[in-house]
Design brief:
The complex is a heterotrimer of chains A (340), B (623) and C (161). Chain A has 340 residues and is α+β, with helices and mostly antiparallel strands. Chain A contains six helices and eleven strands. In chain A, 28% of the residues lie in helices and 23% in strands. In chain A, a hairpin with a 2-residue loop joins strand 6 and strand 7. Chain A is elongated. In chain B, helix 6 (237-247) packs across helix 7. By secondary structure, chain C is of the alpha+beta class. Chain C has two domains: 3-79, Beta-grasp domain (Ubiquitin-like (UB roll), Roll), CATH 3.10.20.30; 88-160, [2Fe-2S]-binding domain (DNA polymerase, domain 1, Orthogonal Bundle), CATH 1.10.150. Chain C is 35% helix and 17% strand. The chains are: A alpha+beta (340), B alpha+beta (623), C alpha+beta (161). Chains A and B meet through strand 1, helix 1, helix 2, strand 8 and strand 9 of A and strand 1, strand 8, strand 9, helix 6 and strand 12 of B.
Chain lengths: 340, 623, 161
């Protein structure tokens, strides 16, 4: 009876955005009289950080401080159409719509500032701190606030923008499956180290070393949130979660959190992450959307590590102690495969 | 303790890392609300006179409803309304009607027949949740139990009980032609015959509950001017409005949906089941109505990530090159379609995983069984097959005696490679992820594996080409009702044909901006862009779907080896002659129709412009 | 349905409500007393989103009969702020990215508060133990554990000053 260590590897790519396109997102941006910007959406923040990442995108595209941007979502009376938060489409689709809306608003803002400074709008740039100045001549400047006041009260101009992003719909071919599924893919690879107790069948994930390629981490900490939390969910899927433990039979369905198992705070494995950024051409600032893909490589890596530890291939999820013990028994004992 | 590092050294030449706000660890806009408990989730809106809704549900996998007696329940205290299927103005829908995909197959409240344990047949609205629960328990329903089927492969056999009346063969109809989605690239059968090793495996996902800590629900209340406000946990606000408008046959202008602060979703809050019922309750009672699942409902009748079964057969050479990969996939959709049919197309586009393999084929089935309908969950359409592929890659590595990471790098897709869905790979980074993860774990890779790059070695010779492809007509809709047919690619095919090498359409890219003012300045996007980005999209690229199978080419079945041997990849292999991309599928030859295919009663409707369809839906998505 | 008058101190303020007989404390706090900060995730005692302090001890409001709150002191996460200033736990959760959807946060923070009230210098294991009755589906717990340790350090610093 012993604890066996095992190591498993898996790597994946993940399609970003709704398959075959046809999923528009719209955004509206407008300025208050004192140069604060409202971004109005119908996107859903279910924890992934939609409000926060669109706020950062809008601030970047407008060229104003983040504190001067607020995202209002999701009220169908004010926010324009969006397909929703699913299929890793939120950042990619809505991010692009926000960029376009903010770009249009920025044009108007620079034109208003140009009129006040009596220069050409093309010669102006923003400093990201609330000022607009002539390129190469920072002293010839006007604040965003003064620009907004002038635009609204003197020039009769809106500092506003509309944006929509759409990958036009396409179809899959019936005979060959030819299709344009998505325009960009995120990537990940990871190594799981775990132990398997050959007496109880219990698996304990010890450490995860991973590399995730996300296009661009639009907010470093939001990405970290997804990767750490997503990998936790991957471990949970691999080892614990099922609504039908003896699928396809429907017996023993859990009805509460006592019967539906997940790793608790005492079972958190150390996870060492490297983030790679290869910008997607059509991603907002190159960003791809890490939210869905992060759990995927963990599941097969755990399965491969269990095989590495005790020589039992669990090709059906979840990898329960029962399955491991039955496998060990069938093999006549644990068969460690040796570290690679 | 965990750690995070940024490998800014990789792909550095493709990025501008000096942006103003992008990349900063700015704290979340919503975080103060979250930590003070003041963020308003849907259930945090208080209404005077709020009523509570609970559903009467089927206790059987499959049964006819013989008789419903609500008389005792109606007399109970606090009962305001019992909502029946006949109270739903347009009681039939399918979620993907919003993109004109598939046929309406699911009632909001089911009449006549139930097809899974937990299917709702009545909704009770009462002053308190307790009263609603008591009344639900007092409804007497007489059922006539029917035979049921729970296993996906059993469901496809002749004689299996029909689960979904709209799809009587227990499988979704693809392209009005087949009972599965096909992928054909090269000729896997010929390549398998020449491989050094055949590696096979079967992989089974389990149904998994999204389990957000906030359960799904909605509160609807009459607003002024005949409108209804609905606070909802939906993940897709306009999706839910569209479904509600259609089921309740009302203009979307009467609906005011508010959400956007959701207590976790993970895919489980797309189905838009609560919003129409809550709004209907508010319409019928004139009062605010809350319909919220309890935790047990969330687990048992909330649509899970569906179970998937995948079989993979690889042809592998001694040096680790995978020359052929065949998939057979079964998605357990449960009793209704919801989103599974579409996830299968997503999954098909994902095959064979992030690898460049010259011959790939797959058949994937969306199967109806007598269980809770499945729906989306984090990684939908991909998670299950990635589990299968990556477990399988380890089996391949073991078979040829290779380090599993080096095997993946050897077969990894690279910029310029042709993917099995006939589009060119770009922006790849799998190899770099493998190298970095190995490094972090202290795994030493061979110098060749460490020197590999996603940017080099791809798109050369056969790697860039679409091969001549063997196709077949197997699995026409309804065929499996008459006889058992092997579900594998080419299994039991009676007609074979081929598509010439080089056949493909153009990639679909983003639509052009409608106004030059919205065109982002290329110097402000923060990364390298090719000229293609921002240019108008190429006109209508993808080949027509649903086109009949091309007439078999002269070289007849069943010997596919004659003219074009499958390209067993070798670095020196000369590229096949470049062919212009003829629209082989768009020009129908005489459709091969060996036997009269199954015809559904109603013709297949891609559009939803039919009576009873919501005026909200103006979709022109599918040609 | 008969109503029962119940009086208690909620976040320092005298509060009186008429509750349905047999109602649980969570419903009464949310619907009758208007404190929406405790959340209902399961009403089965399984998720901890409704965690509140009753006379300084951590309880699950969904499993507490409202009548038993008579005369007791009840504190929810709304008791933590002083004026516009966040409590160190709230600050650490916000700055440490220890919340995603935020639904479990009020209960999680109360569980952490209960720990730090009795154990100002907890180990990592003690923190994990203390929040083991509180489910989070988003974060993987690690940022939450880190935030609680950060807050504990800040609170100890204040005590020393």
């Amino acid at each position: 009876m012993a604890l066996h260590t095992g190591r498993g590897f898996a790597c994946i790519n993940y399609p970003i955005g709704m398959n075959l396109g046809g999923d528009p997102s719209q955004a509206l941006v407008h300025s208050t009289p004192d140069g604060k910007f409202k971004v109005t959406l119908s996107a859903i923040d279910l924890g992934q950080g939609m409000k926060s990442v669109t706020r950062q995108i809008a601030a970047e595209a407008l060229g104003v401080p983040i504190a001067d941007v607020y995202v209002d979502t999701a009220d169908s009376d004010t926010g324009p159409h969006d397909m929703g938060s699913f299929a890793s489409r939120g950042t990619h689709r809505m991010g692009n719509a926000v960029i376009r809306a903010a770009t249009e608003a920025r044009r108007a803002m620079l034109e208003a500032a140009a009129e006040e400074l009596e220069v050409n709008a093309a010669d102006l740039e923003t400093d990201g701190k609330g000022n607009i100045h002539v390129k190469g001549a920072p002293s010839r400047s006007i604040t965003v606030e003064d620009t907004a006041v002038a635009a609204q009260f003197n020039q009769g101009r809106t500092l506003a923008g509309r944006g929509i992003f759409l990958i036009p719909p396409s179809e899959a071919n019936a005979d060959t499956g030819e299709m344009s599924p998505v325009t960009t893919f995120a990537h990940a690879a990871l190594v799981v180290d775990l132990t398997v107790d050959d007496e109880t069948g219990e698996v304990s994930v010890q450490q995860i070393n991973s590399a995730y390629e996300v296009g661009r981490a639009l907010n470093a900490r939001l990405v970290e949130q997804q990767l750490i939390g997503g990998a936790w969910m991957g471990v949970s899927h691999a080892l614990y979660e099922t609504t039908e433990p003896y699928y396809p039979a429907r017996d023993h369905m859990p009805g509460d959190f006592v019967e539906y198992l997940q790793p608790g705070p005492g079972q958190v494995a150390d996870h060492h992450i490297a983030i790679l950024e290869r910008p997607a051409e059509d991603g907002p600032y190159g960003g791809k959307g890490p939210g869905e893909m992060c759990a995927n490589p963990v599941i097969p890596a755990v399965a491969n590590a269990v095989y590495n530890a005790v020589g039992v291939r669990c090709d059906s999820l979840p990898i329960t102690p029962e399955k491991i013990l039955r496998g060990i028994k069938a093999n006549g004992g644990a068969r460690p495969q040796g570290k690679f | 303790m965990s750690s995070v590092e940024f490998r800014k050294d990789l792909f550095a030449d493709e990025r501008d890392d000096n942006l103003n706000e992008i990349g900063k660890p700015t704290i979340r806009q919503d975080i103060i609300g979250h930590v003070t408990g003041r963020s308003k989730f849907y259930d945090d809106h208080l209404f005077d006179g709020l009523l509570h809704m609970r559903c009467v549900r089927s206790p059987h996998h499959h049964a006819n409803i013989r008789h419903v007696d609500t008389s005792a329940a109606e007399r109970m205290p606090g009962i305001r309304r019992i909502i029946r299927p006949s109270d739903v103005p347009h009681n039939i829908n399918t979620l993907l009607a919003l993109i004109n995909f598939g046929r309406d197959d699911e009632q909001l409240l089911s009449a006549g027949r139930v097809t899974y344990k937990g299917e709702p047949i009545l909704a009770v609205v009462a002053d308190t949740e307790r009263q609603a629960r008591d009344a639900v328990a007092a409804v007497r329903v007489e059922y006539e139990e029917l035979p049921h089927v729970l296993d996906v492969e059993e469901a496809l056999k002749p004689g299996a009980p029909t689960v979904n009346a709209e799809y009587p063969n227990n499988s979704f109809d693809y392209h009005d032609l087949y009972d599965h989605q096909k992928l054909r690239f090269g000729d896997t059968q010929a390549a398998l015959a020449q491989a050094d090793h055949i590696v096979e495996g079967t992989y089974q996902m389990s149904p998994i509950e999204q389990a957000p800590v906030e359960t799904c629900g909605a509160i609807a209340a009459p607003e002024q001017n005949g409108r209804y406000v609905c606070h909802t946990s939906t993940q897709a606000l306009f999706f839910s409005i569209g479904v509600t408008a259609k089921l309740l046959d009302m203009p979307s202008s009467q609906l005011h949906f508010i959400g956007g602060t959701v207590g976790g979703g993970f895919g489980g809050k797309v189905d838009s089941h609560h919003e129409p019922l809550a709004v209907l309750g508010a319409m019928l009672t004139g009062r605010p109505v809350k319909y919220m699942w309890d935790r047990t409902e969330e687990f048992r009748v909330g649509a899970p990530r569906g179970a998937e079964r995948w079989r993979i057969r690889d042809g592998v050479m001694n040096d680790g090159r995978i020359v052929a990969r065949e998939f057979t996939g079964f998605f357990d959709s449960g009793a209704y379609t919801r989103l599974s049919s579409y996830a299968i197309i997503k999954g098909t586009g994902h095959l064979p995983g992030p690898y460049t393999i010259p011959n790939v084929s797959s058949n994937v089935y969306c199967v109806y069984t007598n269980r809770t309908p499945a729906t989306a969950m984090r990684g939908f359409g991909i998670t299950g097959v990635d589990f299968a592929i990556e477990c399988h890659m380890d089996k391949v590595a073991e078979t040829v005696g290779m380090n599993p990471i080096e095997l993946r790098i050897l077969n990894a897709y690279r910029d310029g490679d042709m993917k099995a869905h006939r589009r060119v790979a770009k922006n790849c980074a799998l190899i770099e992820c493998c190298q970095v993860a190995a490094q972090k774990a202290g795994i030493t890779l061979s110098p060749e594996a460490m020197a590999a790059s996603s940017k080099e070695g791809g798109g050369i010779g056969w790697r860039a080409e679409v091969p001549e492809t063997a196709i077949d007509d197997m699995g026409r809709i309804g065929d499996r009702r008459n006889r058992e047919i092997p579900p594998e690619p080419y299994g039991g095919a009676t007609q074979r044909g081929s598509v010439p090498a080089g056949t493909r359409g153009e990639a679909v890219v983003a639509a052009e901006v409608q106004d030059p003012d919205m065109q982002i300045d290329p110097t402000r996007v923060g990364h390298a862009v090719s000229q293609a980005v921002g240019q108008p999209a190429p006109p209508t690229p993808a080949p027509q779907s649903g086109a009949p199978i091309p007439a078999p080419v002269p070289a007849p079945a069943p010997a596919p080896t004659a003219s074009a041997p499958p390209p067993i990849p070798a670095p020196s292999a000369a590229p096949p002659p470049q062919q212009p991309a003829p629209s082989a599928f768009a020009e129908p030859g005489a459709p091969a129709q060996p036997q009269q295919p199954y015809k559904p009663e109603k013709p297949f409707q891609r559009g939803v412009k039919r009576p009873g369809v919501s005026r909200f839906i103006s979709g022109t998505r599918r040609r | 349905m008969p109503k029962t008058p119940i009086r208690f101190t909620l976040n320092g303020a005298e509060t009186g409500v008429f509750a349905n007989s047999g109602a649980n404390l969570l419903d009464v706090l949310r619907r009758e007393a208007g404190d929406l900060t405790p959340k209902q995730g399961c009403a089965q005692g399984g998720c901890g989103a409704c965690s509140v302090m009753i006379d300084g001890e951590l309880h699950l409001a969904c499993l507490t009969l409202a009548e038993t709150a008579e005369g007791r002191r009840i504190d929810t996460v709304a008791s933590l702020e002083t004026g516009a200033r966040l409590h160190p736990l709230q600050k650490a959760f916000a700055e440490g990215f220890a919340a995603q959807c935020g639904f479990c946060s009020p209960g999680m923070i109360m569980a952490a508060k209960a720990l730090l009230d009795t154990t100002p210098n907890p180990t990592r294991e003690q923190v994990a133990e203390a929040i083991s009755g509180n489910l989070c589906r988003c974060t993987g717990y690690e940022p939450i554990i880190n935030a609680i340790l950060t807050a504990a350090a800040e609170l100890r610093g204040r005590g020393a000053a």
